[in-house]
Design goal:
The chain is α/β, with parallel strands linked by helices and 357 residues long. Helix content is 32%, strand content 21%. It is built from 10 helices and 15 strands.
Length: 357
């Protein structure tokens, strides 16, 4: 939903109601995760998507009815049988479509502000009739007392899911069936260096949902103008910056660190700091095989152990025969996705089994 939140707010500020359709439950090899969202306006303009085009036409028809009645509609889409709308990938999704009016505008504006501030928050809504909405932050209670513990756990974990009563339960007054859409603080990508490769990777990292920090000790190169897609540009020695962030608790098990400086006096201390920080999810360094061999020798001299060195992805990137900074950024991003999500990095045509797992 985050990708359509700004559009939703803009449309509501214009004074009209909007139909919001969201994937709330997924099973099997579905194309989207819970929280994927699509907007349909009164004049049938569509923003966003719920699948690869498999169910959107049916949901648009539902959205027109929802805008007219004000009541939400729950639909389940399974395997495409050639008759009813369905998914070609073999999975199953539940989609809830609801009418969102201007009365929800203050809540949505607050939600956007919290997301932009990097604050974890959950948007919780009931899934029948005219849905009730609430924002829940870690440590806060939900308005539905018998399920507020479950809601709080989902928000704290940053996981979107359905909670409360089963669909078949007749009485949902005490434990209503709700969808918790969690918006956690985004994972961090810390890039050491200030060159064209850093510029390209900062753009790609932002597109992947990372909060990107560029850090370099050279003030003349480390400027916001040079790296417009980075969330922040810091002038400091990279290793000193990283250690301060670790000490402040701003580095966690999702953090990615890439060293792209090509200078031992920056590379080695930064890599030593990253490799000896167990919570960092991914550590990579750009460079040739010769540079890698020399760098590993220097890291050993700095006291980095063999076990810690096994965490180093260097030379950084997958073998795409990348040449330009932009191509190299895609190569690096592909390796990060594969390593952090358990992918193989192989061509799908060379693998078997479910594509989405």
């Amino acid at each position: 939903m985050k990708n359509v939140l700004g559009d939703l707010i803009d449309l509501l500020e214009g004074g009209g109601a909007v139909a919001l359709a969201r994937v709330v439950e997924v099973s099997g090899a579905a194309p989207r995760e819970p929280g994927a969202a699509m907007l349909v306006t009164a004049d049938s303009a569509v923003i966003g998507s719920l699948s690869g085009g498999c169910v959107e036409a049916a949901v648009i028809e539902t959205a027109r009815d929802v805008l007219a009645t004000g009541l939400c509609v729950n639909e389940r889409f399974g395997v495409d049988d050639g008759i009813a709308p369905g998914l070609t990938c073999g999975g199953e999704i539940e989609v809830v479509t609801e009418r969102v009016g201007t009365d929800k505008l203050p809540l949505l504006q607050r939600l956007r502000a919290l997301i932009e501030a990097g604050e974890p928050v959950g948007l919780v809504g009931t899934l029948s009739g005219v849905p009730d909405w609430a924002l829940v932050r870690p440590g806060e209670s939900a308005p539905w007392s018998q399920i507020d513990g479950t809601i709080a756990s989902l928000v704290r974990a940053g996981r979107s899911a359905v909670a409360g009563a089963d669909r078949c339960e007749p009485d949902q007054s005490a434990r209503p069936r709700v969808f918790v859409q969690a918006f956690g603080a985004p994972p961090r990508m810390i890039l050491a260096g200030a060159n064209a490769f850093v510029r390209a990777l900062s753009h790609t990292g932002t597109q992947l949902g990372y909060r990107v920090t560029v850090v370099d000790a050279r003030e003349v190169f480390a400027t916001a103008a040079q790296f417009p897609h980075a969330h922040e540009v810091v002038v400091d020695w990279p290793h000193r910056y990283l250690r301060a962030e670790v000490a402040a608790g701003r580095v966690d098990g999702r953090t990615v660190v890439c060293v792209l400086t090509h200078d031992p006096k920056f590379d080695v201390p930064m890599l030593a700091a990253a490799l000896t920080t167990a919570s960092v999810a991914f550590v990579g360094a750009l460079g040739s095989r010769r540079t890698h061999t020399e760098r590993v020798a220097r890291l050993r001299e700095e006291g980095v152990t063999d076990d810690q060195l096994r965490r180093l992805h260097s030379p950084l990137g997958l073998d795409l025969n990348a040449r330009t900074p932009e191509e190299t950024a895609i190569s690096i991003a592909a390796q990060i996705i594969a390593e952090t999500s358990g992918g193989s990095g192989r061509a799908l045509s060379d693998t078997e089994g479910p594509i989405h797992r």
